[in-house]
TrEMBL record:
PANTHER family assigned to the protein according to its UniProt record, in alphabetical order: SLL0658 PROTEIN
Pfam families: DUF3368
Name used for this protein in its record: PIN domain-containing protein
Species per Swiss-Prot/TrEMBL record: Thermobispora bispora (strain ATCC 19993 / DSM 43833 / CBS 139.67 / JCM 10125 / KCTC 9307 / NBRC 14880 / R51)
InterPro entries in alphabetical order: PIN-like_prokaryotic (IPR021799)
């Protein structure tokens, strides 16, 4: 039995717009689709991402991705959670997407994936499990879904799209080891 076989599968995840946008800009949405068993986002995030579809070589609409579940967030519990997160995060366009992701994470017990440090601080303070793209990629590596060189190359490709990540691909092994992600 390999090390990857003894590690628990990833929990169900919900992604914010910036994660999806930058993977799309890097033409690497395939990584999310093939490596994750469960990924969702919200209707609000899907609408936000779709505004930029002309820039993506790989999709015409985020809703076209069969492997990505779009959560409608139309129950009373979901709407009340969304309202609470809007009050905590703000009501700007990007804040609404993050508020919807955090509401989904709270109501459906999902792990939120975002690289927004301020939103992460607020969400963590209020009990959510939140991680960034580098965490996600190191988890895929641990589970044998990607090699270390592949995730290092992907980190550089994402950074080239303007994604703000805490390290370059070359720095990733040391950076991740220091934080016990590898």
């Amino acid at each position: 039995m390999s090390v990857a076989e003894t590690i628990e599968p990833l929990p169900p995840l919900v992604a914010d717009a910036m994660v999806l946008i930058h993977f799309a800009k890097a033409d690497r949405l395939d990584v999310l689709g093939t490596c994750l068993s469960s990924l969702s986002t919200t209707r609000i995030v899907a609408a936000e991402v779709d505004k930029y579809c002309a820039e993506y070589p790989s999709i015409t609409s985020i809703s076209d991705l069969e492997w990505l579940a779009i959560l409608p967030q139309d129950t009373l519990e979901e709407l009340l959670a969304f309202e609470r997160w809007v009050q905590l995060l703000g009501s700007g366009e990007h804040d609404l997407g993050e508020a919807s992701v955090f509401a989904a994470a709270e109501v459906h017990e999902l792990v939120a994936i975002t690289d927004d440090r301020d939103a992460t601080r607020v969400g963590s303070k209020h009990g959510l499990e939140i991680h960034g793209t580098v965490w996600l990629l190191t988890r895929l590596h641990q589970r044998g879904k990607m090699t270390l060189p592949q995730i290092c190359t992907l980190v550089d490709a994402l950074r080239e799209t303007g994604m703000r990540l805490p390290c370059t691909g070359g720095e990733l092994p040391r950076w991740a080891e220091e934080r016990r992600l590898l």
